[in-house]
Amino acid sequence: MDKLLEIKDLTVNFGEKCVIDNVNVSIFAGRVTALVGESGSGKTLTALASLNLLPEAALIKKGEVLFRGQDMLKISETEIRKIRGKDISMVFQEPFTALNPVMRVRDQIKEMLVIHKNIKKDELDLRLKELFSIVKLSEDTGFRYPHELSGGMCQRVMIAMALSCNPDILIMDEPTTALDVPVQKEILDLVRQIQEENNFGILFITHDFSVVNLMADDVHVMKEGIIVESGEKQDVLSAPKHEYTRHLIDCIPRLGDERKRFPIQD
Amino acid sequence: MNKRIIFGLVVILGMMIIALFAPFIAQQDPLEINHDARLEPPSINHLFGTDNLGRDTFSRMVYGSRISLSVGFIAVLISLGIGISLGGLSGYYGGKVDGVIMRLVEIMYCFPTFFLIMMIITFLGPSIVNVMIVIGLTSWAGLCRLVRAEFLTLRERDFVHSAKVQGVSDMRIMFRHILPNAMAPVYVSATLSIGGAILIESALSFLGLGVQIPNPSWGNILTSGKNYMDYAWWLTVFPGFAILFTVLSFNLIGEGLREVLDPKLREKRR
Known about the structure:
The complex is a heterodimer. Chain A is α/β, with parallel strands linked by helices. Chain A contains nine helices and ten strands. In chain A, the strands form two sheets. In chain A, strands 6-7-8-3-9-10 form a six-stranded mixed sheet, with helices on both faces. The termini of chain A are far apart. Chain B is an all-alpha fold. Chain B has helices at residues 3-20, 22-25, 57-93, 95-110, 113-124, 128-138, 141-154, 158-165, 170-206, 218-226, 234-261, 263-269. Chain B is elongated. Classes of the chains: A alpha/beta, B mainly alpha. The A-B interface holds A 51, 53, 81-86, 89-90, 92, 94, 97-103, 111-112, 115-116, 158, 161-162 and B 157-159, 161-169, 172, 176-177, 180-181.
């Protein structure tokens, strides 16, 4: 297996409070690594740390993020800007708000290519056409503004943006949480299909084990900044070792089953 | 569409056509002195009468409109340039940059603008180019604050964050992503400032610090007319109304734009 990115012993503090504690995650080519946990467990922070985009208040205590032999936490801002969006790109939770409301979506996708790739106009148009067909949107959609599109369409646009420069790694931060269930399935199938064709690695952030079941190869379960359980999907889903993982799995609604709720402590 | 904007646009577009085609509209030379026709009341030959040296007031006002409009637009363009760049930097970066720029704005606010402009013009020498530049250089503070406030809220929005994650440079985020979203209040404020700039230019010309005699501007026509106000009313009334209507039109366009662009006001009207 081809290891693309490795997060090693990462520890991040907000003041005195430790929000990420000794986290180790690796992303492999052609595989989906899922980071599962509740809100505030540090999943998104871990992802942002791998792009060195932590909020200013965050303090990196120790650890490194290795990508192509470089520590992403140490290289210069201009260097890392060339990696962001080109080699490692990201899809966000809220497709509506993550798109600029006053720019046509085609121009937003085009911007990625203009910034990161030095290509001529006719190649650019060709690539845009290709991207729209990859995410299964008609090309006319490109000339619309985000508010004229549905949530699922916006998310497809985001995916087209993220894929525009053929990244090695795609980070998806709860990409389907804001969408309804049939659209969720469509988007997830689409992502898997594109991944099979392009063999990039995915870091998939979610709190929903039914989505993990559909998508993931490797699973890391996070709670309060600590990875409590890691392993391959089948092992984690069929024989969860940690109590927290069991609770999360019990939340998946099953047919004919009385639904269990996540036990909330006060 | 909004009635105020239509009224304002009609007046301003009319003024612009007059200014552009001044040589065709004004049949008499605005500088030609005629001692046989001093202080003549309005008539077919002299639509707005003549002044104390027998010059045709209508021609002088037609040429004066060129001065007023160009001062208005160019001064505001200068202040937009300064206000948007400083306000943008201030709001986007925050911290020390913001601190320094905001202190600068406060210093600008400390001076009574009109007297500051008068003082600088006195030093630089009165000329229309100086007037444009100085008005522009002294009127950016309000705009700067406005742009800063917009940037402060917009920089926390998801699409800005997403642009950062995708490797877009700070300058590009500021001017391609945030600025277009911040333009609505800027349009309003800029339109209102054009009226303000025209008023300042007229006042400076009235005091002899703007356009120099014999070249005409609405302000200095008023100056020459004020001594004859008792019996030559046309020398003060026409340029006075010209200033009034131009400034009023810009203000109405500004107000109208605010109503159209501000979603809260739109809700109320429904």
